[in-house]
């Protein structure tokens, strides 16, 4: 770890992570350059997986959130953009009709095989 020293003390230097953007489809983080490559591929994968689901679990295509907040320096507000993308990714989750937990539709099918209603004692 790098140290930043002055005459009185030494402090660990802050290491800044590069800025990342959250994918509005899958919710994963990507670099500002690679998100443009990832999103079309992720949407294509989403369509392929959605078409394999039973009709009752199919969802409408996720819409890219429009965040137009620009900071004083002329940059997009990454925090607002990431918050909107994360909310969009969470909206893709489907609740289990037995326990209420949320899953991606393909994982919900697997979960429902073992989910049992709680028995009152």
Automatic annotation (TrEMBL):
The keyword Repeat applies. Residues 19-48, 92-121 form the C2HC/C3H-type domain. The keyword Zinc applies. InterPro entries: ZC2HC1A/B-like, Znf_C2HC_C3H. Keywords: Metal-binding, Repeat, Zinc, Zinc-finger. This is C2HC/C3H-type domain-containing protein.
């Amino acid at each position: 770890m790098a140290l930043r020293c002055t005459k009185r003390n030494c402090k660990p230097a802050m290491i800044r992570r590069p800025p990342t953007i959250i994918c509005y489809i899958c919710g994963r983080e990507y670099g500002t350059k690679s998100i443009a490559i990832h999103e079309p591929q992720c949407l294509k994968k989403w369509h392929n997986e959605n078409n394999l689901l039973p009709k009752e679990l199919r969802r409408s295509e996720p819409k890219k959130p429009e965040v137009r907040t620009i900071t004083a320096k002329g940059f997009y507000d990454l925090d607002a953009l990431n918050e909107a993308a994360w909310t969009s990714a969470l909206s893709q989750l489907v609740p289990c009709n037995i326990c209420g937990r949320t899953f991606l539709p393909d994982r919900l099918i697997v979960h429902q095989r073992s989910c049992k209603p709680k028995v009152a004692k």
